[in-house]
Every structure is written in structure tokens, then in C-alpha cells.
UniProtKB/TrEMBL annotation:
<comment type="similarity">
    <text>Belongs to the terpene synthase family.</text>
</comment>
<dbReference type="InterPro" id="IPR008949">
    <property type="entry name" value="Isoprenoid_synthase_dom_sf"/>
</dbReference>
<dbReference type="InterPro" id="IPR034686">
    <property type="entry name" value="Terpene_cyclase-like_2"/>
</dbReference>
<dbReference type="GO" id="GO:0046872">
    <property type="term" value="F:metal ion binding"/>
</dbReference>
<feature type="region of interest" description="Disordered">
    <location>
        <begin position="311"/>
        <end position="345"/>
    </location>
</feature>
<keyword id="KW-0456">Lyase</keyword>
<dbReference type="GO" id="GO:0010333">
    <property type="term" value="F:terpene synthase activity"/>
</dbReference>
<keyword id="KW-0460">Magnesium</keyword>
<feature type="compositionally biased region" description="Low complexity">
    <location>
        <begin position="324"/>
        <end position="333"/>
    </location>
</feature>
<dbReference type="Pfam" id="PF19086">
    <property type="entry name" value="Terpene_syn_C_2"/>
</dbReference>
<protein>
    <recommendedName>
        <fullName>Terpene synthase</fullName>
        <ecNumber>4.2.3.-</ecNumber>
    </recommendedName>
</protein>
<keyword id="KW-0479">Metal-binding</keyword>
Length: 357
């Protein structure tokens, strides 16, 4: 068991998917840090340490372990940029409880991604994002770029929801949280980076199949719930006052903190169990591009879990070098809940539809 400073036990994560890491992770991190320095995404040395301490290159190296180096680097540039933007404008700072002000900034940000000639002189985060967008358009197809832009807009809409909740002291119930949290947590653009990193383009007729969308949403949601766990582990003092799966369940189900941890584990494992049951059915009829995408979903879930368990708990901690040998992690041998019926959350119950099979 892992103990937080609040005394809450966090059980080991259940994830029977195989893990891997890109062998060029150290060089990718070096090049990403050089880009951050050129673009001046951060304000000062403290912010620089913070963003590099998130180990975004390591995260991407686990997400897309078999992509080429340039593809993983491209993904890492956005992940580092988004970390800086999120910390300054979404989770903290003067906009973090001002949805109307953040919405105006979100419009500027999205237009900077989509329009090469958008004026970016007024906001420090826009020039680096435009540099990323230029690289993406040079390296990847219009379809891949459009899919990423669509996912990026979904993320910003989710952040508006999250900031609006904070401004109104609104705690969502479980159904609302499962529908929206993956958006606010960057799930859509991060998983859209799978195709950006690998350079593959799944045909629309396969990419937009309901079963593929269900698998994508489930992978995002499992990763998001794991991130809630990682955040509770790294920032236990904020764990009870913020908006996460534990505080949602404490309010929605009237649970004590320890009971909320156990219930959150059951919710998360039940979703992953459904993902693993549906995956072989979709793989059976998948073309080569879709098979690469589905493998990416699996690496995304496992890689996110491994990254979260290994990233330093505090930015001041000195992490081991990116290429260093890693100690084995403890994993749960079985799911906390393998119930095959849908979760009692109407917005996601369709993941269990028999028609998907």
C-alpha cells in the first residue's frame, strides 16, 4: 500500500496491459527542454524546473514507445506547453475561478492553433503553440491536424466547465464528472497525439465507429481517474478540497475519504475491465492503421499509470535520469470490481451496449 500524508491508503493500480518506453527518451527530453528555452514558455527558472519536473518526455515515451523520435518529440512539445498553460491559467492564477475571462483566452488559444496568421503578440502562450502547430502541419496530414484541433477545442471547453464549477462552488455528481472530467484533464488532445506521434491515420469509417469511440473514451477516463489518484498522492493537502473522483464520491455518495478511495478504485477498474473485454472484438476486424491506434490506447493507459507512479511527488525532488534503470512497480493482481453491468451513470452507460460487440 502507498500512504499519503493524509493517512489514506491508495491500493495498487490494476493494469494487466504491457508497458514499454521509447529508447530515445533521454534525447527527446533534451531536445524538448531546448525548445522550451527557445520559446520561453516559462516565466522564470522556478517555472522551468516545474515544467521539466513533470517529465513530459517520459510520459510521451511511454504513450508512444514505438513511434519515431521526431513524432514523440512533437507530442512532448505540446505536453510541456500544456503543462505550463494549465498551471498558469487553468489550475492556478487569476483565471482559475473566472470562467468568462478564461473563455475569452480559450478562444484566442484555439484560434492560434488553427490559424497560422492569427495575431499572437498579446499572450505569451500563443507563439509557442503556433510554433508547435507549424511543426504539426509540416509533419502530419490535414486530417491528423484537424482531429487534433477538434480534440484541443474539447479540452478547452472542459476547462471552462471546471473553472465554472470552481467559481460557483459546484461539485458535480458522478455522472457529470465521468462525462466531463476527461475533457478538462486533457484527455482528448493527449490521446489525439497518438496519431500525431505515430504518423498513422485511421480511415474515418473505422475511426468514427461507435465501438472505437467507446474504447477511446474508456481509455481516456481510466487515465483521468489514475491522474486523480496521482494528484492525491503528490498533493494530499489539496486532495479533499479540489474537484476529483474522491471528492465527487464523498459528496455524491456521502462517503468517508477512505471509502471514497475504495469506491473510486471499483469505478475505475470496472471501466478498464469493460475496455479489455471489448478490445478483442474491435481488433478482430481492424485494419492496420486502426490496430496501431488501438495499441496506442493500451500504451496510453499503461504508460500514464507508470508515468504517474514514477514522476516526482514534488517539483523540488531530483528525478533519476530519463534513461536510468527503473525499479519494478507493484500492481494489483485483479480488478477491485469486474461487474459486467453498466455503471449507474447514464452519460457513459452506452460503453456497455451489446451492439458495440
Amino acid at each position: 500500500m502507498v500512504m499519503t500524508a493524509t493517512g489514506i491508503e491508495l491500493p495498487p493500480i490494476w493494469c494487466p496491459l504491457a508497458g514499454a518506453r521509447h529508447p530515445r527518451v533521454e534525447e527527446i527530453e533534451r531536445r524538448a527542454a531546448a525548445w522550451l528555452d527557445r520559446q520561453r514558455v516559462y516565466r522564470d527558472e522556478s517555472e522551468r524546473r516545474m515544467v521539466l519536473g513533470t517529465r513530459g518526455a517520459d510520459f510521451c515515451a511511454r504513450f508512444t514507445p514505438y513511434a519515431d523520435e521526431e513524432g514523440v518529440l512533437l507530442a512532448a512539445l505540446w505536453v510541456y506547453w500544456a503543462c505550463c498553460f494549465d498551471d498558469a491559467c487553468c489550475g492556478h492564477g487569476p483565471l482559475s475561478a473566472a470562467p468568462e475571462r478564461f473563455a475569452r483566452l480559450a478562444g484566442q488559444v484555439q484560434r492560434a492553433l488553427e490559424a497560422p496568421t492569427a495575431d499572437s503578440s498579446a499572450e505569451r502562450f500563443l507563439p509557442p503553440l503556433q510554433d508547435f502547430a507549424r511543426r504539426m502541419r509540416r509533419m502530419r496530414s490535414p486530417v491528423q491536424a484537424a482531429r487534433f484541433a477538434h480534440a484541443h477545442r474539447a479540452w478547452l471547453s472542459g476547462v471552462v466547465w471546471q473553472i465554472g464549477n470552481r467559481a460557483e462552488s459546484h461539485m458535480p455528481d458522478l455522472d457529470e464528472y465521468l462525462a466531463m472530467r476527461r475533457l478538462a484533464a486533457r484527455g482528448e488532445p493527449v490521446f489525439a497525439l497518438l496519431e500525431i506521434a505515430t504518423g498513422t491515420e485511421t480511415p474515418d469509417r473505422e475511426f468514427h465507429r461507435p465501438a472505437v469511440r467507446a474504447l477511446t473514451e474508456m481509455a481516456m477516463t481510466v487515465a483521468t481517474l489514475d491522474n486523480d489518484r496521482h494528484s492525491l498522492h503528490r498533493e494530499p493537502a489539496a486532495g479533499h478540497s479540489g474537484q476529483n473522483i474522491y471528492t465527487v464520491l464523498m459528496r455524491d455518495r456521502n462517503l468517508a475519504p477512505a471509502d471514497a478511495v475504495q469506491e473510486a478504485t471499483r469505478v475505475r477498474d470496472r471501466i478498464l475491465a469493460r475496455f479489455l473485454r471489448l478490445l478483442p472484438t474491435v481488433l478482430a476486424g481492424a485494419g492496420p492503421e486502426l490496430r496501431i491506434y488501438l495499441a496506442g490506447l493500451c500504451h496510453g493507459v499503461r504508460g500514464n499509470a507508470e508515468w504517474g507512479l514514477r514522476v516526482p511527488r514534488r517539483p523540488a525532488e531530483t528525478p533519476p535520469p530519463p534513461g536510468a534503470a527503473e525499479e519494478p512497480l507493484e500492481w494489483a493482481p485483479s480488478p477491485a470490481d469486474d461487474d459486467r453491468t453498466p455503471l449507474p451513470a447514464p452519460s457513459v452507460a452506452w460503453w456497455w451496449d451489446r451492439a458495440l460487440e
